[in-house]
Protein: 4'-phosphopantetheinyl transferase
Amino acid sequence: MIEKILPPWVASAESFDDPPGVTLFPEEEAVIARAVDKRRREFATARHCARQALAHLGLPPTPILPGERGAPGWPGGVVGAITHCAGYRAAAVSRDALTVGIDAEPHEPLPDGVLDAVSLEAERAAIARLDGGVHWDRLLFSAKESVYKAWFPLARRWLGFEEAHLVFDPSGTFTARLLVPGPSVAGRELTGFTGRWLVADGLVVTSIAVPERPRPDHAA
Ligand SMILES: CC(C)(COP(=O)(O)OP(=O)(O)OC[C@H]1O[C@@H](n2cnc3c(N)ncnc32)[C@H](O)[C@@H]1OP(=O)(O)O)[C@@H](O)C(=O)NCCC(=O)NCCS
Structure:
């Protein structure tokens, strides 16, 4: 399902379970040597997805190790993102993007108290006016996670939940306006992102893909 919200210049792979027999590189094994089973499974299947996505770009299997502040380390010339939640794992990679962010969450309301901690008052007011059928609170959270995953490789610094203002279009897109100075990207200050969202199969998925060059198939 993630490919439905990614442009053709971003390759992806996903899994709804943890297939047996997934092998890790020794460097990856070392990272999760002491991890609990749940973490081991999501880490391993996400690497499996990442290698499938890299294969779509014609790239050979390679270790994908957590780097600075947990951001995944991709082969040279590649950017990408990883997500995992109960019942879902995915990776998206590109050689034609400046940055990519993806996130998946169960399509359920956020636990009590979380929305206030991860949103601006204006965002809460806006999602309260949107139609039912979508757990907008969870979607807002997921989109903010995608924003962070796209932001971090460019800025290499923290971005708080209150530092971007997200607005959703019920047709399946969103905008994120940065409320703090962004990094300089291709000679211009980054001021925000556009993204896409989808609810299907009991999941919320969100994505951001910023092309390296202006593209006719991209609105931003
Ligand atoms: C890092 C974070 C975004 C991960 O999101 P999550 O919903 O908790 O978990 P997901 O399963 O979807 O994603 C986990 C993956 O995110 C990636 N990730 C972790 N840190 C990252 C970073 N600094 N930059 C980019 N990607 C990162 C990793 O690939 C990780 O998987 P891995 O450890 O198996 O490699 C989240 O835990 C976090 O710290 N959020 C706070 C910052 C934030 O969201 N700000 C909002 C800005 S509007």
Summary: The chain has five helices and ten strands.
